[in-house]
Structure formats: C-alpha cells, structure tokens
What we know:
single chain; mainly alpha; 2 domains; 18 helices; 84% helix; disordered N terminus; disordered C terminus
Amino acid sequence: MKIKKTEFIDGILSLVISQILIKIFGVAYSLYITNKSGFGDEGNAIYMSGYQIYALLLTISSIGVPNAISKIISEKNMAKDYLNEKRVFQISVLLFSAIGFIGCIFLFTFSTIIANKILEIPESALSLKALSPAIFFVSITSVIRGYCNGESKIYLTAKSQFFEQVLKSFLTIIFVEIVSRLTDNNTEAMAGVANLATTFATFFSLMYIIRKYYKIKNKKLDLNEIYYPRERISNIIKKILKISIPMTISAILNSLGKNIDSITVVKILKKIIGEENAIKKYGILSSKVDIIMTLPLSFNIAIATAIIPEISKRKVINDIEGIVEKIKFSVLITVIIAVPATFGIFLYSKQIFNLLFPNANNGYELLSLASIYLVFSLLTQTINGALQGLGENSIPVYSAMAGVIVKTISNIIFIPISGIYEKGAVLGNIFSSITSFIIVYIALTRKIELRLKLINYFIKPIIASIIMSIVSLNVYKFLILKNINYNICTINSIVIAIIIYVLCVFVMKMINKNQIQQTIENTEKY
C-alpha cells in the first residue's frame, strides 16, 4: 500500500498543533473559573472531583478504544481486507455504544452515593449528573477517531478534539457567567454547569466526527478488494476486546492515580487541617498544578497516538529495522519536549502561577516539585505506544498497576507528615512515574534491540536546557531591574527560553537531516 511520505510526521504535527491550541483554550477557561468570584480553589475541588470520577468511567467505556481500533484498522488496510475492516468498525460502534450507555446510566444513578461516600464532597453530585451523558457520546466518538487514525487520517482526530475544546471553553465561560448572576455566585451550581458544558461539547464533537467519517467511507467505496472470508462477529469482538481491554485497564490505572488524590488528599487532610482547607488543598493540586503539568503530556500524546498504527503496519510485513528507527525517532522527540519543559516549569513555577492565577496563586511550590516526574511520565507514554503497536498490551498494564500501588502507599505515608501534606501527593506521583518508566523501558529493550546514544538522547537536551535556563533567567533579572511589568517579564523570558532552546536543537544537531530522511524512506516502503 502506497501512503504519503510524510504521513507519520504530519500526523504528529497535526496532533501537536491541535493540542497546543486545545491547551490555550483550556487554560483560558480554567483561568476564568479559577479567578471567578465564588469559584476559586473550592469550586475547582468540586468541579475536578466530579470530573475525575467521570474520567474514570470514561476510561472504562472509551479510553484505549481509539488506539485499539486504529491498530486493527491499520492492519486490515495493510492487508487490503476492506470488507472486514468495515465489519470491525460497525461492530465496534455497536459494542462501545452499549458500554457507554451503561456507563452513562451508572454515573447518573449513583452520583449522589459517589459524591457522599467515595469523594466525601456532596456538592459534586450535580457535576456528576451533568457529565453522565458525555460518557455515551465520547464512547462513539472514540471508535470513529480510532478508525480515522487507522486510515492515516490523524488530522481528523486533531480537528475534532480542537473543535470539542473550543466549544467546551466558550460554553463553560457562558454557562458559569449566567449561573453566577442567577444564583449570586453559588459555587456548587457554577461547578455543575461548568461540567455540563463538557457534555454539550462532546455531543457536538460527535456530530462533527460522524460527518467526517462518511466522507472517508464514501471515498473507499470504489477500492478493489482482495477476497477475504467474512470474519465471524464473535471473532471480531474477541479481537477488539483482546486489544482494547489491556489498553483500557492501563488507562484506568493511570486515571486511578488522580482519583487516589481526590480520595486520599481530602480524607487524610480534613482530619488534620479541617474539611474546608483540605478541599482547597486538593483544588490546588487537581486544577492549577494539573493544568500546567498536562501541557507537555498533551503534546507528547501525539507521538504515542501516531506510533501505534505505524508500528502495527510495519509488524505486518516484519520490518524490524523500520520499527526500531520509528521508536528511536519517537523517543528522541519525547526527550526534546520533556527536558526543557522540566527545567522551565521548575524554574518559573512561581512566575507561572502569578501570571495565570493572580487571584488564587497559592501552591506554586507544588508545581516546581511536580516538574521532576515530567520526563518519566512522557517517556512512559511514548514507550507504551510502542509496546502497544508491537502487540505487547499487557506490559503497560503491569507498569500502571505498579505505579498505582506505589502512588497509594506514598500518599498514605507522606500526606499526613507535618509540613508536607499536599506535597506528599506530588512525591507519590514522582515515585509512581519512575516505577512505571523502569518497567516499560526494560520490557521494550528486551523486545527489540534499542541502542540509544547517551549524548544524543540525554546529554545534548540537558546541555541545551541549561543554556536556555541561564539566558532566560538573566533576561528575566534584567527586565525586572528595568521595572518592567512582572507578567511581561515572565512572558518575555519564557519566549526567549523557547527560542534559545530551538536554536540549540539545530546548532547541536539533535535532529538532523539524515534522521528525517531515514524516517521518510522507511515510510516509502509501503
């Protein structure tokens, strides 16, 4: 099958660009609600506690589905088995629609019990109810996005995600503003309608991606098919579940990490510092810190998403050399993203909080500490994609399970310690991410021969990040001495840091023409 030379790179770029735009809009509405009178850290705690339970149920019904479907569809495409490709898609839609519907009913029915007994934040019940229909919508959307990825139309996934985020951002601001005026800034009501905006956005995103799917489907009607016997429905369901269940379990376990915080932080701290302060501490962790930490993770998800169908295709034709080069290239890009992000967040945590949360800037020291686990989380994300593409779906599950166990134990040990409190949850994330990384990296190196040159993959990015930091901090100090506005100093210094780092990437030849050309040549084999 002949595919465009730059599909893999284009797929990554489209997702990265969409994620940048998504995060810009996400930060915009998060800033609005965080700084909104009557919302703040308490509102974020109600909003995010409900959202984390929704995310957990969403994981069961849909997360992992796009990657599983994209893997199967890409393999069918490679074999030109278009008849069974169509059957896989149709059965997937029916299967995950049913699962999503059950998840929707479950969350709506048990929202009050979950809010009172599990979260111990009764105000979050309204948020849970508002989010419940979104589980059904996203379950179907996930299947169609997986189909698009498998068809090497990753840009359609990127567009639909961007469309959803834009709607979510605008609707959140509109809904919260209306309710704040009608209820005299009732925190519970504002948090509820903020989550209702998510449900509306997921519905319209579903309508958008359905429209795009029919365009792809119509273009494929005239393709000549090699004859393959029709696969039994039971065999297709087995194949889908065999791939999607481990991916879903892995995603559930990763999602559980945040739910562990939503349960343990409030439960432990409210006995020490009181319920109101405990909720506020959790609000800082779950909203402000998470918002910033998920920025580089969101950019890197493009690599993990794009690598799965690419490696699946190469595995079909036993292109081991191509698989190794694709993984090495993906790991390199991940490191180039992760290292400067770690340096930047660590050094500018206070300035970032003052810039983004001027009316609620507590907790910057948590962000600085959290930056330590960023590199490990990003590398784990990419390596998981490589392992899933190779068909090693159980390893990310074991890795995530070990991470959850370490996270839980760390939270229980460190959160009650005087002077640490919420920092204990961040320490849990650090130990958890390191544990998960070690497991997946060892597994990958045992599966394939992956020789990564230390100077190219780690030393050069660290040196470039140090240069970036020195120049940026000196620019910041110079601007401060000139009595320039604090926020303008921060923005200029961060922009300078990005420019310096990008220049270092090319000057130090971290990514060279040969690597890009090799990636293109490997893709041409198809």
